[in-house]
Amino acid sequence: MWNMFEFDAFHLARLQFAFTVSFHILFPAITIGLASYLVVLEGMWLRTRDNVWRSLYNFWLKIFAVNFGMGVVSGLVMSYQFGTNWSGFSQFAGSITGPLLLYEVLTAFFLEAGFLGVMLFGWNKVPPALHFFTTCMVALGTLVSTFWILASNSWMQTPQGFIIENGHLIPQDWLAIIFNPSFPYRLFHMAIAAFLSSAMFVGASAAWHLLRGNDSPAIRKMLSMAMWMALLVAPIRAVVGDMHGLNTLEHQPAKIAAIEGHWENRPGEATPLLLFGLPDMEQERTRYGLEIPALGSLILTHSLHKQVPALKDFPKEDRPYSPAVFWSFRIMVGMGVLMIALGICSAWLRYRRRLYHSRPFQWFALCMGPAGLIAPVAGWVTTEMGRQPWVIYGLLRTRDAVSLHSTLQMAISLLVFIVVYCAVFGVGYYYIFRLIKKGPQPVTELTSQTAGTRRVRSQRLSRCVMRRTHHEHRYLGDLVCHHCLRHADVYRDGWFRFRYWDAVQRGA
After folding, report:
1. Which of 16, 72, 185, 386 could bridge 244 with an S-S bond, Cβ 3.0-4.6 Å?
2. What is the pLDDT of residues 372-395, one digit of tens each?
3. Do 471 and 464 contact (CB within 8 A), yes or no?
């Protein structure tokens, strides 16, 4: 009998991990897309030298930094839980999952840590091309991190490339382990979802400013770029999701049956698609089901005649908890449909030249901001709960992977996690919303930072503005000689800002 509300140590350990991983996924869902977005913004600035792009880059860089830091902290907590709460899993499969996490640290984390400082603080200290390179490396690091984490998770869903000796898994073929059957679909699905989450986040921020009357060029570019992403990427995500579903049907048919709330097949009839209903694990039926005949077979098998495996085809102890995955899947799909609708609406309004003036659309875009976070959380609930009762599908049950703790210990630790997470990450999100409310720096202010300076061609001049004496030499910069260069703040676009106002006045 299924009971999801038994508060023993086992269920509390599951609840604690679900809480921490749900919190954690909120940060990579934004970080991955924002990192690539920053690459585009800086690349456009380098190409056009339009300070609107620079303003947008500086604005989103701060938000990226805060979000990245919270993601790193929440990710470390998850790693520790493998040893504290899930020692059975670590002992059984640590020889496979451990190296995969190590590869993530040695490649992605080192890449991000090595270039992040230059990316955050090197705008005026390194050449433009080098700074752009660091931004690209940080973005690459987020994608490499996604690669290794999803390789590990996908292997837990579709394990292969190992042998079992003395109750432990021994890796035999690392290529088979990494590139397991579900890995390509899960990797592309998650990467696209992260780009869409960032697009919804950026689009909602722009819509909020437009609703408040801030119709600056930077805000318009934010909304325009976000809506292009929604229009082009959301349909691709639907196609990749369909391919992922076919792969899941092949390797985890019980998960598909639970997602569909499909209990039994009728002889000679195709599988219907249940739009809504209430799966009942005890009575083994879906109550109040609203179904479309044969559509389930068409979507899942691309045929009107083939049947999909039903939950009653599997032993009761091997069935996932259908009510949870049934609704989490529909929430994820619903968010995806709304994203496609948002992209189509934006294209129509862009054609009518009303994209920046339609308040109903701006409210729609603003309300879709949380959808970028709800969709990946619902998707991971579907993925992870659909794998139950296995932690490594077909090899290790979740109950056999948990550490031996008392119910009181798990309850106290869960309570501490809830309090600390809500306090720490609540402050982090509050600061992010403060940054969003402030908005991008106006281009006029950005330009005024170089007030009192001027750019001229390299030439032989009779006097350096930073020196009182006259002398002749070839200038390394456009205005300041190599003797005085150390007395000026050098900007990456060729401007100089002098530290001494009298020198500025003399050079004006």
Report:
1. 185
2. 899 999 998 999 998 988 999 988
3. yes
CA proximity to 355, closest of 342, 373, 339, 367: 342
Separation in Å, CA 449 to CA 48, 443, 446, 454: 19, 10, 6, 12
Cα distance from N-terminal residue to C-terminal residue, the chain: 83
- 217: number of CA atoms within 13 Å, CB side? 9
pLDDT digits (tens, 9 = 90+) for 80-131: 888 788 888 888 888 898 888 888 888 888 888 888 888 888 888 888 889 9
Distances from the Cα of 362 to the Cαs of 223, 343, 354, 374, 478, in angstroms? 9, 12, 11, 19, 46
H/E run at residue 276: strand 273-280
For the chain, counts of helices (H) and of strands (E): 17, 10
Considering Cα of 215, then 219, then 225, then 228, what sign does the dihedral take?
A: negative
Model confidence pLDDT, tens digit, residues 134-160: 999 999 999 999 999 999 999 999 999
DSSP 34-48: HHHHHHHHHHHHHHH
Task: Find, among 130, 234, 207, 147, the residue nearest to 183 by Cα.
Answer: 147
CA angle 116, 119, 123 (to 5 degrees): 155
SS3 of residue 182 by DSSP:
coil
- Crossing angle, helix 359-367 and helix 217-251, to 10 degrees? 50
